[in-house]
Amino acid sequence: MKILKFKISIDWVLVIVPILLAIASVATLYSITSISGKSSLAIDQITYFVAAIVVYVIFMAFDYRILKSYSWYLYLLGLILLVAVVFFGQTILGSKRWIDLGFTQFQPSELVKFILLIFSANFITSRKEISVRQFVVFLALVAIPIILVMLQPDLGTALSITALLVGVIAVSKIPKKFFLPLLVLFIIAAPIGWMNLKPYQKQRIETFMNPSSDPLGAGYNVLQSRIAVGSGGLYGKGFGQTTQSQLQFLPIAYIDFIFSGWAEATGFLGSVALVGAYSILVWRIFVIAGQSRDDFGLAVASGIGAVILFQSLVNIGMNVGLLPVTGIPLPLVSYGGTSVVVNAAFLGIVQSIYLRKKALKFD
After folding, report:
1. pLDDT per residue as tens digits for the range 283-297
2. Other CB atoms closer than 10 Å to residue 311's CB: what's the count?
């Protein structure tokens, strides 16, 4: 008698690469904090990754299409959380982005990335055709949380959300004629956005081209980051042997400038390996997006691929001085519980899309 066997073939790239990034994260965090009295950050990060594994498995296990039914509820929850930051948020380094839960700090803007992904993908794909009025309504709805995030101020997360939305819109059936007015609107809004930036945000952009003009001020982080990356040489100094990051010449090395800490410890070869890992991960996400059996899955996976690609490029770019400092974390490597868990949810959904791209096999 033949025994019926149930087979589920997962995408191993979506498992192996995140694990490698997690290992790189913990190793770098321990390396840059081992002599500064903050070695607990590496332990905290391990705890976050344990929670992330649970979240990953949960989102992988259930049908991602179920999320469509909850998109409006999630949107309202996102607005409530962002408003809660205004009244109950904790201010750190001049930004009011976190809510203190006692045992940990929660960053609602990171969760809003997930919420707007589901909301925008459902809003756009649930209609056979998008009218001008519906497109304007959509833009207004997504603009509200983005503006609330910018007021925290958190320009980096606002830009990440925008990149996510671009990924969703790019694969949608929205008429191309809508894009020209959108471009004109962006051009008009850009000067207004510049005028509303905080002084330190303007300084970051102004010193981007010539950080040596203010080496002890706005250009300090970029200069120290370049020194850390360059000092790693070909093979790196080794974990626990770094100087720029361990001696705290590099501010916030465990979040914004963690790539510099990795580069100093592992050198050019390690840096290339990390960039390669992100390249493979993003490539695989977009491949799975193209294999999706429905428009919602295509839009969701494309948005996830776009935001991971954007955050990786911007973080690494600002670490090596190719882009202005914007405070965007490196996905799955930078320290932060909310960010790690949200990225795990993203990858779990992509895995769910992969599992359901064809009928399950039986022997």
Report:
1. 999 999 999 989 999
2. 27
